[in-house]
Amino acid sequence: MIGIALLVLALVIILGVALYFVLPLLGIGKASQSTISTTDLQTTINYAGTDITLQNVQQANNFLDDPMTHSDGMLRVHVQETNKGKNPTTLLYPNIAHVLLPGGKEVSLLYATNNPTLAAGETQTTSLDFAVPASIKANKIILRLGATNEARMDIPLQPHADVSKYATKSIDINKTASYFSLNYQVTQATTQWSLDGQQAPKGMRYLTLTFKIDNPLLQSVIAGSPFDYMQVKAGTQTVSPQQANVPITFASHVQGQDGSAVFLVPQDTTTMTLLLSTKDGDGFDPGTVNFTI
To answer: Which domain of life is it from (predicted)?
Structure first.
């Protein structure tokens, strides 16, 4: 009886192994790749100093090469990343990549083939997978880039989507204000959604003002730190610089002394005012320059 039992067990094992290898060949018990549709996109946007090009978007019921694939609808975005900054950067896609469905539902990233760390000038490619019902077409979906505490950017998954609202913009101002006996000419204003590899905080963007500063006096002037007397009024907010390289001291009769200052301003504010005055007053009339960007 023991011999018969061992023989039966051996036959069961042999049959199981045979079925394991034979059934897939017959298309039984093995998932198959569903039909994949592909749409070319070729849309580039800069996130935190990195150019991210949406190359194409694919849809299928499943993606067999995704270890977390669903079987009732998947969406894949192929992206190419190029670090345009001077320092290495890492893209943590689980934190910064979502898709927005019609009706406003936000879907988190399901799987990324890479969370690339890019050296300055380096280029890599990544696939981003989301579980999206197959009934929702890609051209109705938006890729949202940015963590919840950052200035987020929405890119329609359509060929050559218009993302100009997120581009760097500059205008010439060439207006002058006097403060502390110095003449501050605001030459240019530039807005951008990231600076030095850092995405702006939620609801904000970076504003950079550049200056030419003259001292008409016979003696040098110590103006002090621009962090103490420079501000920008944007809407209901008045903000001090995030960065500044305006000199503290100006020599006698110096002309065209260069300087710049960076501020964080609300995204939806276009009319602003540069204020030159210490917060507690210093006896000098404040200087102001109004501009629209």
So the answer is: Bacteria
Q: Could you tell me if 135 and 239 lie in one domain?
A: no
Where helices occur in the chain by DSSP H, the ranges are: 2-25, 93-96, 226-229
Residue 215's Cβ-side half-sphere holds a number of Cα atoms within 13 Å equal to: 18
Query: Are residue 80 and residue 48 in the same domain, yes or no?
Result: yes
Facing residues of 124 across strands? 81
- Residues 116 and 167 sit within 8 Å (Cβ to Cβ): no
Q: Could you tell me the pTM of the whole model?
A: 0.84
Task: State both tokens at 201.
Answer: 């905080």
Domain boundary residue, one of 165, 183, 214: 165
What is the DSSP code string of 86-134? SS-EE--HHHHEEEE-TTS-EEE--EES---EE-TT-EEEEEEEE---T
- The domain of 116 spans 37-165
Per residue in 43-70, pLDDT (tens digit) is 999 999 999 999 999 999 999 999 999 9
Strand partners, 99: 107, 143
